[in-house]
Design brief:
The chain is an alpha/beta fold. It is built from 17 helices and 26 strands.
Length: 679
């Protein structure tokens, strides 16, 4: 079990380095990430390298028994590089330059950047591929984090090349993009530019392709550096840190190239429900490479510095969120950063070793966590045992985020709400793509899958035909992979298995909040209107009681499905709202709206009952989280008050029985509890 954080010795005098190693040993640190933002220190000028300081640091770490996740340092080019090669700078959609003085100011497709980055990685690999401290390579850092998209001329040229490879001919592109609309027909790829500032809406198919291209361009940088490392004899695992559900990079495709998934996650202590979004991110990381442990490479020991209000973590909360990651497959718990910075933009960001030093609650909790992690037994690395899969797809995210839809939706927020509804019911969940193998799941939940590829449609249909239970929510199966309607309207590829078709979306006024804005882009005021113009919700009768629907009250044409719920108010009153269709041993359900949070819990409880899926442990309060890792169950109290529980088995660390245990706020316990199949 790795334990540590980002280590930035270049920010400190050499006299501090030995003290750092001694304190790391005291805290139980086993590995640190070194050199992430050290390009200017490693290479003070083109063609000149300064290795003495990094040699010393790596030797000191090795002598202290601490491993290094050595970074390639390519995340932030030094000022000398962009001054000498101004074409390296990225540009926004208006054409404005992102200058140096911050970080991530480079154009990913810049030949100058790629050449200089390659030369740096070449030199690092040549010197340190066999260094005994180096156990992993950390390529770049948080690709695309602050600069999601680049619209420079380099991006323009690379985008054109990417489109040539994708479509082969300009005629094929014109068909896919529907360029006869608004006289957008191209006669040459050299006429195409990125979606820069325009008078009105861009071509939606072009927008999706630009996001596909951007993800691929960033991935090219990673694979370029990984190949250089391998060519110079580096045999250690190669990774780059992800950031949960991050829009510009399709991590599901990236995962094929990553040896070990690593992730950065910063739950907000101001949000009492943030542990659920953290759980979503951690289940997502675990699901990207099933059966392979991953590493939480960054989190905060306490407060961050970049929110409007940066609350500290409560006593015990840091350990609770760390154990949440372990419970969901992590074999490493790390932080940003080891020693809190004296200067720079992140000097208020907490660290393992705070400004106030060792006489702090943070330091006590850091050392306590190090001891706990060191005492853990070897934990199973196999599949999660989850019987529920939640579908989450980057290409759909890009397409559903385009403008000019019936209602504006925040797809990632909605998916996390569906996840939270399962999380509250203590059901283990894998987060999968619509084209991945779903055969091992008893229930597959498909929320707002607006874009459905032919391969995804075939996969979901096959899942039901083979006996699975499919639950689909509104605004799904609307367009194909080109963001175009198929012949016949909506729900054309999933409609047959669902036994219904959507004829109209029946848009409602979106609720205020992250997932919905009103037509003017502002918050909504006043009570909801029950019917007519401005209708804001539609109540649905379900087998488990009424559910409040939002965003849509779709008009369904039922073919051979059974109607189990109807709309009961507004313009859609008495229309079908919840349907089910039996197909052999399988079932397919459709809900013609998006429920509020209690409604999501209700309809998913109904779907879980239909699929005969029980919670991991019954009777737990919602503030208590349970997560399965093989035969090991971790139970965490994220609430503000103690909770008394009766749990099966015994405490995995102490052997004490758990039939009468009280968990204080943010306390946790592990127990060995085989699944029914294992029993």
């Amino acid at each position: 079990m790795h334990y540590g954080g980002d280590y930035n010795p270049e920010q400190w005098e050499e006299a501090t380095w030995r003290e750092d190693v001694a304190l790391m040993r005291e805290a139980g640190v086993t590995m640190v990430s070194v050199g992430i933002f050290a390009w200017s220190r490693i290479q003070p000028a083109e063609g000149r390298f300064d290795w003495d300081w990094l040699d010393t640091v790596l030797d000191l770490l090795h002598e202290g028994g601490i491993a290094a996740d050595l970074a390639t340092a390519t995340a932030s080019p030094p000022p000398w590089a962009t001054a000498a090669y101004p074409g390296m700078h990225a540009r926004d959609a208006d054409g404005s330059i992102f200058w140096h003085g911050s970080r991530q100011h480079y154009a990913p497709t810049s030949p100058e950047y790629r050449r200089l980055a390659g030369e740096l990685v070449h030199a690092l690999a040549q010197r340190y591929a066999s260094h005994p401290a180096v156990v992993m390579w950390h390529v770049n850092n948080e690709y695309g984090c602050h600069l999601h998209y680049d619209y420079s001329d380099h991006a323009r040229d690379a985008f054109r090349d990417w489109l040539r490879q994708r479509y082969g001919s300009i005629e094929s592109l014109n068909r896919a993009w529907g360029t006869d609309f608004w006289s957008q027909r191209y006669t040459d790829f050299d006429q195409i530019v990125p979606p820069r500032k325009a008078p009105y809406s861009h071509n939606p198919s072009g927008l999706v392709d630009f996001k596909r291209f951007t993800s691929d361009a960033l991935l090219e940088l990673f694979t370029m550096e990984k190949q250089i490392l391998r060519e110079h004899g580096a045999t250690q695992p190669v990774t780059t840190n992800f950031m949960g559900a991050f829009p510009p990079a399709d991590y599901r495709r990236w995962a094929r190239e990553i040896d070990v998934i690593t992730d950065d996650n910063y739950a907000d202590p101001n949000d009492p429900e943030s542990f659920r979004s953290a759980a979503f991110s951690r289940d997502l990381m675990r699901s990207l490479k099933p059966g392979v442990p991953w590493i939480l490479t960054e989190q905060a020991t306490s407060a961050v510095n970049w929110r409007p209000s940066n609350a500290p973590k409560a006593p015990g909360q840091m350990a609770a969120l760390s154990m949440q990651a372990v419970a969901r497959g992590a074999d490493g718990i790390m932080f940003f950063q080891w020693r809190q910075s004296r200067r720079g933009s992140e000097k208020f960001h907490s660290a393992m070793l705070p400004h106030a030093g060792r006489q702090t609650r943070t330091w006590r909790e850091v050392t306590e966590l190090g001891s706990v992690l060191a005492a853990l037994p070897t934990l199973p690395a196999g599949p999660s045992g989850a019987r529920v899969a939640l579908i989450f797809d980057w290409e759909n995210w890009w397409a559903i985020g385009n403008p000019d839809h019936p209602v504006r939706l925040d797809y990632a927020h909605l998916v996390q709400r569906w996840y939270s509804a399962l999380h509250r019911q203590h059901v283990s969940v894998d987060i999968r793509g619509p084209e991945e193998d779903l055969s091992g799941y008893g229930l597959v939940v498909v929320p707002q899958l607006y874009l459905v590829s032919d391969a995804a449609a075939a996969n979901l249909n096959r899942y039901v035909a083979d006996g699975g239970h499919l639950f689909v929510s509104s605004f799904t199966d609307v367009v194909d992979s080109d963001d175009a309607f198929r012949d016949g309207g909506f729900t054309t590829v999933l409609g047959p298995i669902l036994g219904m078709r959507v004829d109209d979306f029946g848009a409602l006024v979106a609720p205020a909040g992250p997932a919905g804005v009103d037509s003017a882009g502002g918050a909504l005021d006043g009570p909801p209107s029950p019917a007519g113009p401005g209708q804001r919700h539609a109540t649905v009768s379900t087998p488990l009681g009424p559910v409040v629907g939002q965003y849509f009250a779709e008009e369904l044409r039922v073919l051979d499905a059974t109607v189990v719920g109807t709309f009961t108010d507004g313009r859609s009153a008495r229309w079908p709202a919840l349907t089910t269709r039996v197909s052999g041993a399988g079932q397919a359900h459709y809900l013609a709206t998006i429920p509020d949070d209690p409604g999501m819990t209700t309809v998913l409880r109904w779907a879980l009952d239909r699929a005969v899926i029980a919670p991991e442990l019954p009777g737990l309060p919602e503030c208590v989280e349970v997560a399965r890792r093989g035969s090991v169950l971790t139970v965490i109290n994220h609430g503000a008050y103690p909770v008394s529980l009766s749990l099966p088995g015994s405490n995995l660390l102490t052997g004490d029985p758990l039939d009468d245990v009280t968990l204080a706020p943010f306390a946790w316990v592990m127990t060995d509890q085989p699944t029914l199949e294992e029993k």
